Amino acid sequence: MNKSFPEKIKSLLKTFTSRKRYWMGAILLLLVVFIVFKNSNNTSDIIIEPVVKGSIQKTVVATGEVTSETDLNLSFDQGGEVKDVRVKVGDKVKKGQILATLDQKDEQAELTQARGSLLVAQANYKKAFRTLESAEGSLENVIAQQNVLVKNAERTLLSDDLEAVAESLDGGSAAAPVISGVYNSSLQGEYLVTMYASNATSAYSFKLSALEKGSGTVSTTSSVPLGSRGLYIKWPEDFEGGEVWVVSIPNKRSSSYVTNLNAYNLAIENQKTEVDKATRSILEKKAEFSLGNIESEIAYAEVISAQGKFESASAKIEKKILRAPVDGTITTIAIKIGELAKSDESAMVLQDVSNLYFEGIVNEENISLVKDGQSATIVLDAFGDTKILNAIVKEVDLSATKNADVVNYKITATFEDSSEIKAGMTATATVLIDKKEDTLSIPVRAVYQENGTSFVYVVTDDEKKKYERRTVTTGLLADGVLQEILTGLSLGESVVTSQVLEPVKK
Prior knowledge:
It contains five helices and 28 strands.
């Protein structure tokens, strides 16, 4: 059995223990080491990885914090004793929200009195106006009543004494079907009812045309719908098939037709008369209620005066209320309950959250890659990876800052949605520099450089771990991990990613 490599070395050391043979032994030892490594070829330690196809991207990371462009100093329009402070430092507030109030005892008393005077004035004015309101209500009632009367007269005219008249009986005679129901349309004309043989129980059906199109089954036991406008038809037991019946709407053959027509026309005339009468009444009441009427004029003036006093009292109260002019975050509170607040001194500082943005630094190696308009994702330390915010790079400051020999540049980015963030939050922005879709890539450690040429070691035999050197054309370097391959490799091939001292040929 052959000795292992360590055993061979120990044997040589024992052989050459004498001082005289030291240098000769050393030379021989180095020769053995070379042979062992040469024969082993170390191919069992080769690491290979496949060529993959997919999406890769290059990004630049910036660290910084959320900041605001605007700080607003808020103060009361009028001085007074602080009665209530409804927020604390760090609170996020909405536009119009009450932040604090001053004592309003006097103003509230004035407002109460003004409200009472306004209610009295409005009641007096309404009293003077009531006759006009009554006339207008009467007109509405008259119109509604007359519309009903006209509609009823029309319905009677179109539905009364309807009958089916045979268009032709081919020399014979037959009992006519019975027409019933109330016609619910205003259209006038004729229904043509044509009978024909069918698979119905009665062995006949009918087809409807002219005023309305449709069909139905001939029945002698019950009335069936004649179209969809409220009428019904029932045939006698001794009906004959094949007839065509005409139903005229209205039935001008009826003895009551002229009476119904006159009643309908009279209803229309009465409608016009009654509506005109009610309209004239309104005009008369309006004339009585004109500005020339002393009662209405005084009542109206009282309402205007009371309304003015009420608005004035409301404005005085509003001056003792501090509201948020915009959405934002309270950063400073300079007032306390019970203390005197002055109108010319800042009571609070509000940071305008509508202007929140990210401000971060990028090192000098990467700043040339960052441009205005690039998209970015921002992770806030307060939320971690649970909330990733989208942003857009708005500005790249090319004036450098230097700290401990480290050169950095400032960038700013605006958020697409800043509803849940606060100024001062630390954050990390990842700016998208470039992205490739559906492209070949390999680990960057598999790529070697020699005289400006890129090459890799391509596996030619997986089992024996054999490989060959091949020149490639590279593209995007994706975040220092993956290297895009433009030419030289194909999907399905594998490359060596461990260190290669000597390529093994096929």
